[in-house]
Amino acid sequence: MIEVSGLTKRYGGFTAVRDLSLAVQPGEVLGLVGPNGAGKTSTLRCLAGIIPATAGNVRIAGRDICTDPVAAKRALAFFPDEPRLFDYLTIRQHLNFVARIYGVADHEAIAGPLLEELEIADKADQLPGELSRGMKQKLAIACGLLHRPSVMFFDEPLTGLDPLGIRRMKDSILKRAREGAAVILSSHLLHLLQEVCSHVLILKKGEKIAHGTLSEISAQFANGESGVSLEEIFIRATGGSEH
Amino acid sequence: MLGALLYLRLTSLKNQLISRAKRLRQLKYLLGALVGGAYVYFLFFRNFGGAPGSRGAARTATTQALAALPSSEALAQTLPLIAAVSALLLLGIVILAWVIPSTTPGLRFTEAETAFLFPAPISRRALINCKLLSSQFSILFTSLFFTLISNRWTFLGGNALTHALGWWFVLSTLNLHFTGAALTLSRLVEGGVSPLRRRLSVLGGLAVVVGLTVAWVWRDLRAPDVEDFAGVAPFTSYLLGLLDHSVLGALLVPFKFVVGPFLAPDARTFLLSLAPALLVMVAHYSWILRMETSFEEASLAAAEKRSARLVSVREGKSVFASARTHARPSPFYLSSSGRPELAFLWKNLLSTATYFNLRVLATAAAIILVGSKWFLSGTTPDIRAARVVVGMISLTAGAYVLLLGPHLARQDLRGDMPHADILKTYPLRGWELLLGQILTPVAILTGLTWLCLLAAALTLQPTGRMAFPLTPSVRWLIALGIAALTPFVGALQLLILNGATIIFPAWFQSLRAVGPGGGIELMGQRLIFVFGQFIVILIALLPASLAAFALIFATQWLIGATAAIALATLVVLVVLAGEVWCALWWLGERFDRLDVSSELRP
User: Fold this and answer.
1) Distances (CA, A) of B186 to B105, B109, B189
2) Does residue B419 sit at the A interface (CB-CB below 8 Å)?
3) Of B56-60, B70-74, B191-195, B257-261, minimum mean pLDDT range
4) Cβ–Cβ below 8 Å for B334 and A97
5) Which of A43, A50, A90, A130 is the best residue to mutate to test the B interface, defined by the most B CB atoms within 10 Å of its own CB?
6) Out of A34-48, B216-230, B505-519, B563-577, least confident range
7) Helix ranges, B24-100 (H)
8) Parallel/antiparallel/unpaired status of strands A207-213 and A55-60
9) Contact A93/B325, CB-based, under 8 Å?
10) Residues carrying CATH 3.40.50.300, chain A
11) How far apart are alpha carbons B314 and A152 in whole angstroms?
């Protein structure tokens, strides 16, 4: 569902992502982790077609994001860490706009239950300025889910959410994965990886250090010790520093 | 405390200057600085120190133009009147400070200042002093800037130093008054006085003053007659009589003290004017220190509001735009299927003022039609002259809307650039997105231009020699032709501005800087942009204009003027539509390749 081979992203002389390859199958949730500046956001943005890759291939639902971007983008949804909303559109108007962009024919039938699930149905006629940070995040999620994407990218999805919001977000990601979506999320929160991700990919300085299931990664960096925490594994894998 | 404040200000200033100097290594800032510097030089310093006659014809023309003006002596006679009018102006500004301010008045601190200074062990008085002192930095800069402007007002007498100090007195006193007013209003709010009641009280007091003045004029002063307008001296004398006596005259006294140093024509008068001006300042300062009121909460709210406004401006929105608090109904029904470009039209129309809709457009057109019918029925010379004036004003307004409107109607990619990463996830080609984005400003500008054209076409009825070529049918054909071309010319202009955002995103990003991040280099960048846009639109319109002129010239003898104009309009339409399509396609490709993460960093 998500196939990446040899992905490289350079900004001038600086290489943010180097020769990255990965694949995420339907139902899988891949956690992208790494220290600050490891290239997580650049990777997600290249995969979502927001920024052009310098080299490599990215296929979303069988479509190349570079040569057939419109078809590839119809299948994906990108959720940034900060909800980017239009100040002058209400929740309902946001969904109406997105429905037209993606050509979602029965959007009202989908939007109703979606807003109920995200618990913002009673705010449907309010502007983003009247919503709390968490509710804005929920609206951004509703907009992303409206066209029933088969591929989802989450950049730090738990930023700014309260404990209940965090639980709901985790449940929502798992629900979509169970329904057959391929999901990649980047996060610094290791407990999120433990609870949500089926696979983990560790990046450092734009390069893949480790990739596999949680148990495979644990085995790789535990050095034969038992009961090593994920935090310890992360520190061992990344060398404990950003540099 | 003051030492810490000075350290903060001076270090910030030093670091700001260093970072400004460093960014000159980037070409965009260097070019901007050169152009901005040249602009400032030619505007303010060109005539400094130059020998008379050294700039040939231009200087001669200027000298001749100045000679045509009243002499310096004659203007000097008006100084008392200038003082009175300046004082009246200051009074007006002061009244506005009491009437206009928001419901949460407070001292203006930045968010960082509120975060560091409010919890610090600093007395309330020290906090106020800190505020007053910190405002002196901007007052000193503004005084110098105003001195550069007022340096040309040679009839005032004085010199650059007295003018600079004079501006400092005016600006500092106004600042003290605004601070005092903010504190007083905070106390009134604490005491439960509503903004409406406060405004009514101020306006009531003003009405009493105006009433007393009118009564005095009615009783003691004769109404102005023809002789009062015979020259500068009688007119000055009459106005002075009005402003120098009565309640108004007494009210203006402290304001005249404040403008005294600036208007002092010589050193002696300047020195004599210092004491009264200082007295007013000291009175204000003691007023501020005596105000026992808590301003912290209001200041926090004001700092947050200002910060939000700064963020809004950096996101490409108008500095005058306030955050909308009420949702608007949809401008039209947007179904889930159909061209996606219409979704952008729908979305961007929601971001505009409520009166940009078809109903208002139709109503305005109806008013113009009815009004012009009444206008056309009049045959007196006055009505005919008024018709020409209205027609010319409408025509000029239409040209302004078409040429300058695209800079103001920013409901397009320029406003949405902060959302560029989300826009790029949409399953749309670049040209589709760009076309959708410009539809709203094109619709608004076209509507407004059409209204102006309608008014011009109905009221401009040339007589005499122009009556034959510009027959009614030709006039209407020209109007219809321009109306048909309007959306395409508007689209071209908007594509140039949106294209600049796509092609030079880093320039666009830096131009959003406001406040201390701005400067001469950004002013230069803006000038380069405006000049570039002017050149590009001229080049874009050249092929269509040449084709139109050639066609009309070649065919009007064969098929008549009306048919030639119609044919030329059709050809111009095709050329412009082709240009719009090419620009859309090319800029769309550029948008598809735009690397938002690397290029949108300022």
Assistant:
1) 6, 15, 5
2) yes
3) B56-60
4) yes
5) A50
6) B505-519
7) 27-40, 56-68, 72-77, 79-99
8) unpaired
9) no
10) 1-75+154-243
11) 30
pLDDT in tens, B368-396: 998 888 777 766 666 777 778 888 899 99
Any idea which fold A1-75+154-243 has? Answer: Rossmann fold (3.40.50)
Across the interface, of B351, B427, B595, the residue whose CB is closest to A52 is B595
Give the nearest partner residue to A51 out of B328, B335, B595, using CB atoms.
B595
Q: How far apart are CA B442 and CA B476, in angstroms?
A: 23
Q: Does B313 touch chain A (CB under 8 A)?
A: no
> How many beta carbons lie within 10 A of that of residue B226, not counting itself?
7
Determine the Cα–Cα distance for residues A6 and A4; give it in Å rounded to an integer: 7
Q: Give A49-65 pLDDT, tens digit per residue.
A: 888 899 999 999 999 99
For range B64-75, the mean pLDDT = 56
One-letter amino acid of B536: V
Using a CB-CB cut-off of 8 Å, the residues of chain B touching A107 are 336
- A147 has a pLDDT exceeding 80: yes
Confidence category of residue B192, pLDDT binned at 50, 70, 90: confident
Q: Determine whether the interchain pair B598/A76 forms a contact, defined as Cβ–Cβ distance below 8 Å.
A: no
A201: helix, coil or strand?
strand
Question: What is the residue whose two structure tokens read 């943005």?
Answer: A45
A183 Cα distance to chain centroid: 6
A153: Cα separation from own chain's centroid: 3
Q: Domain ranges in chain B?
A: 81-309, 315-321+336-599
Size of interface A-B (CB pairs under 8 A): 106
